[in-house]
Amino acid sequence: MTYKVGILGATGAVGQEIIRLLHERQFPFSELKLLASSRSAGKVQSYGDQSWTIEETKEDSFKELDICIFSAGGSQSEMYAPVAQKHGCIVIDNSSAFRMDPNVPLVIPEINPKAALGHKGIIANPNCSTAITLMGLYPLHKMFGLKTVIASTYQAVSGSGAEALQELKDQLNAWSNGQTIEKNVYPHQIAFNVIPHVDRFDSEGHTREELKLLNESRKILQLDDLAVACTCVRVPVFRAHSISVTASFENEIDMVSARKAIQDFPNVELVDDPDNLKYPMPINYSEVVPCAVGRMRKTNVIKNGLSLWITGDQLWKGAALNAIQIAELLHEEGAIR
Ligand SMILES: NC(=O)c1ccc[n+]([C@@H]2O[C@H](COP(=O)([O-])OP(=O)(O)OC[C@H]3O[C@@H](n4cnc5c(N)ncnc54)[C@H](OP(=O)(O)O)[C@@H]3O)[C@@H](O)[C@H]2O)c1
Q1: Fold of 130-313
Q2: Can you give the pTM of this predicted structure?
Q3: pLDDT digits (tens, 9 = 90+) for 140-180
Q4: Residues with CB under 6 A from ligand 1
Q5: For 205-221, what is each residue's pLDDT tens digit?
Q6: What are the DSSP E strand ranges found in 25-183?
Q7: What number does CATH give the domain 3-126+319-332?
Q8: Cα of 161 to ligand 1 centre, how many Å?
């Protein structure tokens, strides 16, 4: 079985990775339709010896498609997902538009694959920091029962899209050449800085990104009482997010079992050998499938507490890869058309 596949937002940071991973993972597509805004319409996108012309997204763009991965922001998803749904095209959405909709499954295939099969035409991909954090926490949750999460994120600039990636490069170049550093994407210079602000603030001082970790974790893990406190921070890293977590569990932590739980979980690696200076770092977990966990140690500041550090490629596990894994899951279950 092969499918007609679309990518909405094909020219973006995530869209480019979707094109690459569909090929590298040999997803069975017979046609690929690349959609973006009118700004990109007519441009040519190549991969290997193939090339496609980018098309402007229109209501009838989805008519012939079996499945379309959306990666063009929440307002585009809100506008076009119901249209695609009407045409029988399954939407896997990278934006936050539908994640908390009770009719839309929010899926990490290693954690809650069955949820995907109950979809009604739209499946949501989790927020990038949430996906990576849960890849590290879920194996521990299964063993010890997760209760509380206190986290700080260290989020790469590519998490804000292609323009932000360029902004960090431009600022580094300007600094090296003694030129004035300009900023457009972030409210402050990001080169040689950290910014404790990701997404919009609410009236209580939380950012939306911080609340995503709370709300999306509760939905994915089906843990309505999970307590989460999070500070999201943008750091001058090109790619791959890291999360520092202190968590408390129902049951007492046994470190041998905790390490084994991480080692046995698919697509997670334990990199935890401080004596030999081994711990996960973004530079080692960019453009790779697994996320990594390290710096695991018990803490006495909360009951049954454990601190750990989790790193993963947010363009892959936090977006493109997770979306394609969902498509692969549907394909394996014969659930596309
Ligand atoms: N970056 C990440 O790590 C990450 C992780 C998880 C989720 N996401 C989510 O994925 C989505 C895309 O993020 P990104 O980082 O790839 O952003 P990006 O690099 O800024 O790319 C945005 C894409 O959306 C397209 N687009 C913008 N306005 C459009 C319109 N009116 N009609 C059709 N297409 C339009 C752009 O096309 P043009 O080139 O024509 O402007 C481009 O292809 C966002 O919802 C983001 O929250 C991103």
Answers
A1: Dihydrodipicolinate Reductase; domain 2 (3.30.360)
A2: 0.98
A3: 999 999 999 999 999 999 999 999 999 999 999 999 999 99
A4: 9-15, 36-37, 39-40, 57, 71-74, 76, 94-95, 128, 158-159, 161-163, 314-315, 318-319
A5: 999 999 999 999 999 99
A6: 29-36, 44-47, 50-53, 55-56, 67-70, 90-93, 122-124, 146-155
A7: 3.40.50.720
A8: 7
